[in-house]
Amino acid sequence: MSDDFLIFGPDDVDLARSPLRGSLDAPTYVLGAFNPGLAVLPSGNLLLMVRVAEALKEPVTGEHVLAIRWTPQGYALDRHPLAGVSMKDPRQFETAHATHRMLALTSLSWLLPVELAPDGGRVIAVHYDKAIQPAASFQHYGIEDARISRIDGRWYMTTCAVSAERHCTTLYTSDNGLDYRLEGVVLDHQNKDMILFEGKVGGRFMALTRPLGELYFAWAPESAYAGGPSINLAQSPDALHWKPLDQPFLIPRRGSLANMKLGGGSQPVLTPEGWLMIYHGVETRETVGIYRSFWALLDRDDPSKVLRLEDEVPLLEANAALTAPIAERLYLPTPVVFTTGIADAGDHYIVAGGEADLACRITRIAKERFR
Q1: Is-contact 239 270, C-beta < 8 A?
Q2: What sign has the CA pseudo-torsion 13, 16, 21, 26?
Q3: Closest Cα partner for 22 from 66, 75, 76, 70?
Q4: In 284-344, where do the E strands start and end?
Q5: What is the pLDDT of residues 209-258, one digit of tens each?
Q6: Which domain holds residue 193?
Q7: What is the CATH number of the domain that holds 128?
Q8: To 5 degrees, how large is the angle CA 65–CA 70–CA 74?
Q9: How many folded domains does the chain comprise?
Q10: DSSP notation for 100-128
């Protein structure tokens, strides 16, 4: 059995069962089925919470470009004037003549639970009846990039919610790992990669965060840091109310393979040596950048202390051979691998992620790799 393969992709999604079908008549296709949260279910089976990015087949009509938006009455199509619109990033377009930079998405994302065998090598069931779609105005452009952590017998899932109201982080909880309840907004500012540690630290919930902004202030010219989006830490008494730690955590370094930005990947899991976390680093290249996965080991009692950091030799890189059979579906200009979950499988870890923002990738990595 291969230790590195695609397990679920765009062609595996049955759009006839999409939550958009109830009210959206326009023809759509799956831009990507990727970036899955990963959890172990009570049965021992694995759960992938797959992000399905559903896009319009004909987004441009006449003098307008269209975007899908959720409303309490159903899904609607917004018509943005095409004149002056920038579409250099295939995942979004920038509207013209706005005081501030304004984006709209070329797809709307919803979450699809996909159940796998315990070894991650086979799909057991696709739970369309448990799909998670927008349900509040702060999600009206979609729900993205689930991350799942099991803590004290409950499953906590963070997602990125996209809307004109706010670009925020939301929390879902579950008592069985499969049926999730929306708890609401937990981070009000833009934050793409909030991930709860899979266990408490000093009796408190701990999480990786990655705040975003329109500008960043420069480090001193002689500093080793490049600045930009970085990974911070936050703690909470209840997983709903979060206090950022005062000290910085992981910051992009000049001249490294991750000089553009950093962000969380898998949920940190406790090992005999400390908390193991896999994160992504982005190298500056064209519009999107090159995404790779790296890893770090953190102190079990004070995760702000980094015991080991491997940020020069990537743990994972994009693998063109995996997407070769569906190469005609590729739309990103640079290689992307985006780790989103990890599960203990005895002598190795099962690592899940998105490949090329297109499909779900499973990689088995021996535990010795992290020692």
Answers
A1: no
A2: positive
A3: 75
A4: 290-298, 306-310, 337-344
A5: 998 888 889 999 999 999 899 999 999 999 999 999 999 999 999 988 99
A6: 4-370
A7: 2.115.10.20
A8: 110
A9: 1
A10: S--EEESEEEEEEEEEE-TTS-SEEEE-G
